[in-house]
From TrEMBL:
Membrane-spanning parts: 23-44, 51-69, 115-138, 158-177, 182-199, 205-221, 233-260, 311-335, 342-358
Organism: Pediococcus argentinicus
Listed name of the protein: Polysaccharide polymerase
Keywords per UniProt: Membrane, Transmembrane, Transmembrane helix
Length: 391
């Protein structure tokens, strides 16, 4: 089935396979470099080297895709987004949006199952290595106390980095093996327990629980296809905008504000600071952030300020155009997947989008392993996978 799908792109099997493998090779190097950058190895290896490697590898995949793959409307969207990303970088020195654009454009014509399998393997192996090295003391395992418990990072720079990896592993499992219910649910339950026990991330734990619920109810969800096709894209747009400007609707200091802020681990206060102190620019702006991650984050003299909402970051840091590209692509992808009967994948992506409302990982190409399939043609979701998802 892989062969039939690849032939439909316009090349013979061997030629297409070589191009696809080369693009995936470049993407793998970018992913590995990003993982190193988010680990404690970042203090032993030149940060600029890692950034350059990520940019160069994504750039190579991007160029190969434009030269050898079909040029269509999605290519134009990807190029336009990449141009915006370049301008944002020149203005803010932030590469996230350029990497985001080049990644989704470069891998848009690669069979989805191959991409997801690759990201799953690289993420799993990388995490196992980091955990092993941190347990043996070769690299630090930074611990963060909260509510009487220690949240562990196990070789990553912060527990939420680790929890994001666990969440996206669960996403990959739910896409790759949706029909093997017992095995899939067992793996995802284990990931959820690990996430809650060792990182203390309520948001990522809850997100994995939602993924489990989708797998459990998959046989019934296809019955709501028509309703979901209409409601999900609307909720994506409205939900994202609402999550950004929530503090404009709930007055600061009210009981409701205090309750929601507590549930979101003080994120609402930080969001209120962002919305009330910064304007929206077309190509973004420099906003100095200091999180708890790494050695810098443990410096109590540095004031904590970090934008956890991925879409708030894309709007205020990446700018209005970056925000519109990201939200538009996400809404369209959910709609097109559900319309083409890939109901479960559409709902899985929907959960990933919701997770981005409370976590910063959505716009990070080293963490969000779903970015490469955001512009993929539904035909690249293999036929046998399609049967698994809707039956």
């Amino acid at each position: 089935m892989d062969e039939l799908t690849e032939k439909s792109i316009g090349f013979n099997f061997n030629e297409t396979n070589l191009i696809d493998n080369t693009i995936l090779f470049f993407y793998s190097l970018s992913l590995i470099s990003g993982t190193i950058q988010l680990s404690m190895f970042t203090y032993y290896i030149s940060g600029s080297l890692l950034v350059f490697t990520r940019l160069a590898m994504c750039g190579c995949a991007f160029i190969l895709s434009l030269i050898f793959k079909r040029f269509n409307l999605k290519s134009i969207v990807g190029i336009s987004f990449s141009i915006v990303g370049i301008i944002v970088f020149l203005k803010t020195r932030n590469l996230d949006y350029l990497l985001f654009a080049m990644t989704l454009t470069g891998l848009k014509d690669i069979p989805v199952k191959r991409v997801v399998k690759l990201t799953f393997i690289i993420t799993l192996v990388s995490l196992l290595i980091l955990v092993l090295l941190s347990i043996t003391g070769i690299i630090p395992n930074l611990g963060y106390p909260r509510n009487g418990r220690i949240r562990n990072s196990f070789g990553t720079t912060y527990p939420l980095v680790l929890s994001a990896y666990l969440f996206y592993l669960a996403v990959s499992v739910s896409i790759l093996w949706p029909k093997k219910t017992f095995v899939t649910l067992s793996i995802m339950t284990l990931l959820m327990i690990l996430c809650n026990t060792y990182t203390g991330s309520r948001n990522d734990t809850f997100s994995i629980a939602l993924l489990i619920l989708i797998i459990v109810l998959k046989k019934y969800l296809k019955l709501a296809k028509i309703l979901l096709k209409t409601l999900i894209p609307i909720f994506v747009v409205v939900g994202i905008v609402f999550s950004i400007f929530l503090t404009k609707l709930i007055p600061f200091g009210t009981n409701l504000f205090v309750i929601i802020n507590k549930l979101l681990s003080d994120r609402l206060i930080l969001q209120d600071t962002l919305v009330n102190n910064y304007g929206i620019k077309l190509f973004g702006q420099v906003i100095v952030q200091n999180g708890n991650g790494g050695y810098e984050g443990q410096n109590s003299l540095m004031q904590y300020f970090y934008i956890d909402n991925s879409y708030a970051a894309s709007l205020y840091v990446g700018g209005l155009l970056s925000f519109c590209f990201i939200v538009g692509i996400c809404a369209y992808r959910c709609y097109s997947l559900i319309k083409k009967d890939f109901v479960i994948v559409g709902l899985i992506l929907f959960i990933v989008i919701i997770n981005g409302m409370v976590e910063s990982s959505f716009i990070n190409t080293s963490l969000n392993t779903i970015i490469p399939i955001l512009l993929s043609d539904p035909k690249l979701f293999l036929s046998n996978e399609k049967l698994n998802l809707v039956e």
